[in-house]
Write a structure and sequence with these properties.
By secondary structure, the protein is an alpha/beta fold. It has two domains: about 120 residues, NAD(P)-binding Rossmann-like Domain (Rossmann fold); about 180 residues, Rossmann fold, CATH 3.40.50. It is built from twelve helices and twelve strands. α7 links the parallel β6 and β7. It binds (2R)-2,3-dihydroxypropanoic acid. (2R)-2,3-dihydroxypropanoic acid (DGY) binds next to loops.
Length: about 325
């Protein structure tokens, strides 16, 4: 058996695979593979551990006739043609749960960085422009008593809501399903998207990217945001109409926005660099030693399970 890993992972994934007598090939360059490279390395693989930056379409899937399992080293799996993989009897797995707290932490970090204008403050100090304490210097917003709208009440959305509750926020949520546990723990109120957007002081996006959520926050929806609103995206850039959002930020139609994800990653709209009312992170939601190590273990364990004829631990198809 052979497994191709499309990047160098932290943790023990390689050791786990080797212990199970699985040959491992790792692409050791820190970048996405070209299609040609992918086909070259994976053509005889029985399993693949892929990264978010690798697009696994029907052509790639067809080029791996032996492949039985694709383990995406992420919770989101919009980079994989899951339906086509299913047609080819390939199990696709992801890494839920293990990155929930890390991602919720980064969402709250962005909320606080936006609300309290942390990067602007840092810039002043680093540029030696700090002239002393001032009553109007970098006024931001407190979180206490603010309406905190969560889009998507899955694991990460719910974990973010718990954190916001601890800061004294009222939790509103938009979701396809009612999350009774979340409601019980935080007093969260479920509501339609437009109502949530109009009433929230902070909005944090935790929706997977699907045909339904692509561009969900379009111009019509974004225009409903309060002028004091803070919008945080740690999910997928494509959920928001980035161009409209940038225009609104330029015109100060909302207070600020925190981005961990972008529409054309890793190519970032250069207009964003000109804005002071944004916080820009390089897609590091799950980037903790704990989460990334557990993600690697879970990916390897899933692959081992499928290749030894057992059920996958966290299948998505
Ligand atoms: C995910 O898991 O989907 C994140 O975006 C990357 O860790």
């Amino acid at each position: 058996m052979k497994v191709f890993i499309t990047g160098d992972l932290p943790g023990n994934a390689v050791d786990l695979l080797l212990k199970n007598k699985i040959e491992v090939v790792v692409f050791d360059k820190d970048r996405a593979l070209t299609k040609e490279e992918f086909v070259k390395y994976a053509k005889d693989a029985d399993g693949v551990i892929s990264l978010l930056r690798d697009k696994i379409d029907s052509e790639i899937i067809d080029s791996m006739p032996n492949c039985k399992v694709i383990a995406n080293y992420a919770v989101g799996f919009n980079n994989i043609d899951v339906a086509y993989a299913k047609k080819k009897k390939i199990v696709v797995v992801n890494t839920p749960d293990v990155l929930t707290d890390s991602t919720a932490d980064i969402a709250m970090s962005l909320v606080l960085a936006c609300a309290r204008r942390i990067p602007e403050g840092e810039k002043i100090v680093r540029n030696k422009k700090f002239k002393g304490w001032g009553p109007k210097l970098l006024l931001g917003y407190e979180l206490r008593n603010k309406n905190f709208g969560i889009l998507g009440a899955g694991r990460i959305g719910a974990a973010t809501a718990l954190r916001a509750k601890a800061f004294g926020c009222n939790i509103l949520y938009y979701s396809n399903h009612q999350n009774l546990k979340l409601e019980k723990a935080t007093g969260a109120i479920k509501m339609p998207l437009k109502t949530l957007i109009k009433n929230s002081d902070v909005i944090s996006i935790h929706l997977p990217l699907t045909a339904k959520t692509n561009n969900l926050l379009n111009e019509g929806i974004l225009k409903l945001l309060k002028p004091s609103a803070i919008l945080i995206n740690t999910a997928r850039g494509e959920v928001v109409d980035e161009k409209v959002l940038i225009q609104m930020l330029k015109e100060k139609k909302i207070f600020s926005a925190g981005f961990d994800v972008y529409q054309n990653e890793p190519n970032i709209n250069p207009e964003l660099f000109k804005l002071d009312n944004v916080v820009l992170l390089p897609h590091i939601g799950s980037a903790t030693v704990e989460a990334r190590t557990e993600m690697a273990d879970l990916s390897a364990k899933n692959v081992i399970a499928v290749l030894s004829g057992k059920k996958a631990i966290t299948p998505v198809n």
